[in-house]
Structure formats: C-alpha cells, structure tokens
From TrEMBL:
One GO CC annotation: cytosol
Keywords, alphabetical: Glycosidase, Hydrolase
Record field: transmembrane: none
Pfam families listed in its UniProt record: IU_nuc_hydro (PF01156)
Identification of the protein by name: Nucleoside hydrolase
An example molecular function term from Gene Ontology annotations: purine nucleosidase activity
GO BP term, pick one: purine nucleoside catabolic process
Location of the Inosine/uridine-preferring nucleoside hydrolase domain: 4-288
Hydrolase keyword on record: yes
InterPro entries: Inosine/uridine_hydrolase_dom, IUNH, Ribo_hydro-like
Amino acid sequence: PIPVYLDCDPGIDDTLALAYLLAAPNVELVGIGTVSGNTSAAQAARNTLDLLALAGAPAVPVAVGAHDHLDHPYGGGAGWVHGENGIGGVDLPRGAREPDPRTAVQLLIDLSHEYEGRLHVLTIGPLTNIAHALEADPTLPGRVAEVTAMGGAALVPGNITPAAEANVFNDPHAAAALIAADWDVTLVPLDVTMEHTLDEDQRRMLLADERPFVRAVGEVLDHYFDFYVGTYGRRTCALHDPLAAVIAAGAVTPTRAPRVPVVVDVSDGPGRGQTIADLRGQRIGVRDHDGVRTRLVLDVGSSIGQHLVDTILA
Ligand code: BDR
Ligand code: CA
C-alpha cells in the first residue's frame, strides 16, 4: 500500500475522503494533520479523532496544525457549507484518543524520514501546514514521492469568490509555496471536482449500512446536500476532496492532466487566490511544459461517485 500523510480540515467532503482512504485497499494512512479551513484546526482534529474512533480504525497519529494562515488570522470557517462544527452539525460520540503532541508540521517531517522516498502527501485543505513544513525543512521535497492537492480553479469560476477556490483562497501564499517547491504535485481543481457528484440514492446506501461509522458519513452529508441545491438545482454534492483521494490512491488515472505552470494570485484584490494556469496553445491536445512539476487535472475518464460508495461499503 501507498503510505499517505493526509492534511485536512474536516469538513464534510473531507469526511467522505477519510472514509474512502480508510477503506481503500492500496492506501495506508500513516498520519493526519489538520488545518483551519472549513472549521478550526483544533475542531478538525476532534472531528478526525471521533471519526477514526467510530470507524474502529488503527491509531493513526492525528496532529493539530496551523490555526492561522500565513498572511491573515483564521476567519471562522465555512459553517454555511459544512455546519458550525465542520461535520454538518452531527454530534459524534467522543473518541478516546487525543491529538498527537507533535504539530502537524513535525508529524509530516517525521513521516518523510520514516517513509523516505515513498511518502505520498495528500492535501484537502488550505496549504498552511505544508508551507510551514517547507520553511522548517527545505529538504522535505526530496523525501516525498508525490503530492496530490485538492485546490484551485483554472478555467471555471471559483467557489468562495468569483475567482478563487476555497483552499487556495484561504492561504494563497501557502498554495504558491506548495507549487514552487521541487516535488511532483498533482493539482485537483474545481474544473474536474465539480464534474463528480454523489446523489441521494447513493447517500441512502451509506445510511442503510449497519456500521455506525458508515451511517454517520451518510448523516454528515445531509447538510452538504442542502448547500449544493443552490449550485446543481437538486440534493447532491460535489466530490472535491474524495476525487483527490481517489487519484492519490491510484484508483483512477486522469485522462487530461498537463504539466503546466500555475501562478497563484496573492494580491488583496478581486483575483486573490486565483490559480492562473498557462494553458495557452492547448486547443489541439495536451502539451507538457518542460521542467514543470505541477500537473493540473482537467479530466478524469469515469465518474467516481459509485466507486467511492462501493469502496466504503465493501
Ligand atoms: C474545498 O474547500 C473545502 O470547503 C472543501 O472541503 C474542499 O477541500 C473545495 O473548494
Ligand atoms: Ca477540505
């Protein structure tokens, strides 16, 4: 299995991604760091620990990461999307474990030594912890096999502003640092995540399962489905973080993912957090730019909704 460090902000779609990663046969979750985004880093860690306990998962270390972002303090989360507690207001039984005493940055650095050359970093929240880790240890990229990051919007509108996707908008300087570092990054933007959805009949399959953890995932999704009525005109949800997890697990291979320069707007203007990808000259096919280590996922052949449900239910 692929050893994966997950950096997350659960988060409803983060919860679904976590459920998938716990069930995916070719993934071994070796550490989880949390960051403020959908909710605070501390609340995200509590949610993660409670979800892991309910799942009866192995004692993966869960470390609290950055509360504030590089150039601004934490702004209070996205309660209207993910609920005030980050998991749709669902009250999970409190798990017995407490967060790891290390910071998320230290956990990531430790894991990069333990799994040198093999560690896969999967980020599904703002990139603050990653930026701090790169600053604390510039040799980190040399020990990481690959990075998969859910974030950005290249040719489609943003979601938190007209220009920006939430994970990048919440810490544009950190996203820029991730892209600038010398490692292979697969960026999974809204261009492709908005094309993958989960529908009410699939949510009902989770709700009908006998395992309390799987049922809780179905319950948590209820709030998210309400939010997405405004986008899709029906109860459903976009599979942002789960798609990044499925790609990191190698369960789908993107059909269009050129290596292209991506610049992040770090200004304070209306473009803040925009990811500007140089896709000029791409009309007749995908052209990789020499030396660029950032792949931008623009298409994934098949729809992943049912794969997600089947894996979680297996
Ligand atoms: C991203 O922002 C968060 O709200 C989601 O969890 C996902 O990581 C989508 O823009
Ligand atoms: Ca997230």
